[in-house]
Amino acid sequence: MTSDADTNDGRPAATVEEHLEQLYGSRMMRRQGVTAPLGFRAAGITIGLKPSGKPDLALVFNEGPDLAAAGVFTRNQVKAAPVLWTQEVLKSKQLRAVILNSGGANACTGPGGFQDTHATAEAVAQTLSNWGTQTGAGEVAVCSTGIIGERLPMDKMLAGATEIVHEMGGGLEGGTDAAWAIMTTDTVPKQVALHHPGGWNVGGMAKGAGMMAPSLATMLVVLTTDARVSADMLDLALRRASAMTFDRLDIDGSTSTNDTVLVLSSGASQLEVTQAELDAAVFAVCDDLCSQLQADAEGVTKRCAITVTGARTDDDALAVARSIARDSLVKTALFGSDPNWGRVLAAIGIAPVTIDPDTITVSFNGSVVCENGTGVPGAREVDLSGKTIEVVADLGLGDAQATVRTTDLSHAYVEENSAYTT
Amino acid sequence: MTSDADTNDGRPAATVEEHLEQLYGSRMMRRQGVTAPLGFRAAGITIGLKPSGKPDLALVFNEGPDLAAAGVFTRNQVKAAPVLWTQEVLKSKQLRAVILNSGGANACTGPGGFQDTHATAEAVAQTLSNWGTQTGAGEVAVCSTGIIGERLPMDKMLAGATEIVHEMGGGLEGGTDAAWAIMTTDTVPKQVALHHPGGWNVGGMAKGAGMMAPSLATMLVVLTTDARVSADMLDLALRRASAMTFDRLDIDGSTSTNDTVLVLSSGASQLEVTQAELDAAVFAVCDDLCSQLQADAEGVTKRCAITVTGARTDDDALAVARSIARDSLVKTALFGSDPNWGRVLAAIGIAPVTIDPDTITVSFNGSVVCENGTGVPGAREVDLSGKTIEVVADLGLGDAQATVRTTDLSHAYVEENSAYTT
């Protein structure tokens, strides 16, 4: 999906992106994010958590009237304090605000780290209450991203929690500032808003540039909507969208301790929507944020879509696609624009799925390079020099299929990740 | 274990390497390989499979009197023609010879590729027969390594099969030439011989510099012994040794289509040995070859041992150690000498094993960096600048443990693997 596109030529959609383009077209705007829906305010400020002095604290505030919310979280068994906190507060299915910091993950910080998270939520709640919106700490989600294993400087956090509420006071803007403040190794902020033809809106922002998969990322995503929907509808829409988007973005096979995706509804549009309408809109926003995350992944020089077709089941297709997407030898070959299809076959062969090596067909960018497990003439000449590479592997065993988005493995990835804390 | 070491100071062995050093000490020689045991000849020649013009064909020949043999192979479901062939011929538990080529894997080459392998074995058998040793193609194992998906130039292979038998005619030397001829991206040949105090010998050679794990590698290994042992004893010794050595060498999580480890016995020493003696000697040779493979892995700047202790079961310990050893973020941190223990915890948390994040202790090079899931003061100051890094993660759940050997993920790895076919 391209940003701010304004036409489609009426052809039947060949891809998810084209389908969304036809559905929503010019209604998707990347210049707006969480404050595009009615009833939300946001801010992003600098409180000195990052040595760079860049913005590092963000707030998203739901003015209501509704406070419905839902979330999905990392599957990593090692969960950061803010994840444990936010999972707990979401049991009420209500959120008034989300406070997010970059510059420190507050993961592996023990009971003290959890107390820090609690104190941060309490400070936000207290300031919002003083400011006129009665709020409890249990209505404030906390998200953190950055280095694992360091306590946050709580003097800065608590002062920042007060400051950012005042900062946000002025107006409905601030979504873009918030998107900037949650960045770590991201090079660009990521946000999008969908202005639904029905008159309601969904907005979102995301950060994350590595460590994505198999579930989410050091990925923080906040979605907002002004549709009138229950928390259970939000939960269903979010789970369905995540399973097809963020869960299938696999940059390096690593999975963060802090991954969090939240969705908040203000109901401020006064418009009720169906589950199907909500599902489609939330999916569209997640899909767009996902492609922005992929494009900005650490050290990426190629955006790669790995599609497995002809599998016996959807789960099989996904497992094989992940095996290809995570293989270091496949990923370095993609970096080198090298149509080394043998590595794709080797990666298929180690997937935890029974395959038949003699029925596999592989194509790169639409050119068949391997048929029935054997190379075809000209396979080495396929041009992979572009920024986008499409790998399709047909297992020849059934009708199921799945696509995983990934990137190449480049020098820049190694560089960026070899010197992150030092 | 160091090569050609000649002393030990009588201390109790603290590591496997020290134990082997005490057991065999100066009896391990890296200047010798498959022809160290009596009854074996070998050769390595150049037949033009590699653009570089370097040696590319090797032969190991068993003069007997025994022809007992065993093998272990890749677990990849996509198996190269020579693997399928050699698995078949090994059903007889006898081998007269092994022909090995670099410069082409003969994988994913269809029925034609299998016929090529058969024809190569036939040519070796025919030449050996002409030369005075009656041999059938079914007694000739074939191993290939190199690019996947290309047919081998059979004119060169068949002429080479004849030439190499004549080349080997001259004497018992040639083991070192063979070790050179099987190299691909290896920078040094890898061989070792154990001259057992009991008067019998085990020799071996190996190639492989990437793509090792979870089972073997694009790793080819041939072991020889002059002990009088049955094929079943060889099989048992090889399986036990492989499980603890090659199977636990995990460079990049990829697994080749061509991995093969063969062991041949000539019985020429006339000495019978026990299973325990054979197990120990085969393990010692495999362990030494394994450390040579690790040291020469593609683009390696650090040799890393990942030990997981305190697991509930050995399988759990191994699964967690593999999860750490394969994590791209851990490996790039090791490359950068960065004591980023949070990434180790994140990698433990995504292992397919139930863990308790609050009972994990991690140390780098003997310094505790994380206790009960929380960082300790000074953790960021641990010195990882050396060539060898030891990571120990204690899960605090039980008594089982396992060690996986791996390497860092460096620029050179990306460089080497991004331009392999082009």
UniProtKB/TrEMBL annotation, chains A, B:
Annotated EC: 2.3.1.35, 2.3.1.1
Keyword Acyltransferase: yes
Protein name: Arginine biosynthesis bifunctional protein ArgJ
PANTHER family the UniProt entry points to: ARGININE BIOSYNTHESIS BIFUNCTIONAL PROTEIN ARGJ (PTHR23100), ARGININE BIOSYNTHESIS BIFUNCTIONAL PROTEIN ARGJ, MITOCHONDRIAL (PTHR23100:SF0)
CDD domains: OAT
A GO cellular-component term linked to this record: cytoplasm
Keywords in alphabetical order: Acyltransferase, Amino-acid biosynthesis, Arginine biosynthesis, Autocatalytic cleavage, Cytoplasm, Multifunctional enzyme, Transferase
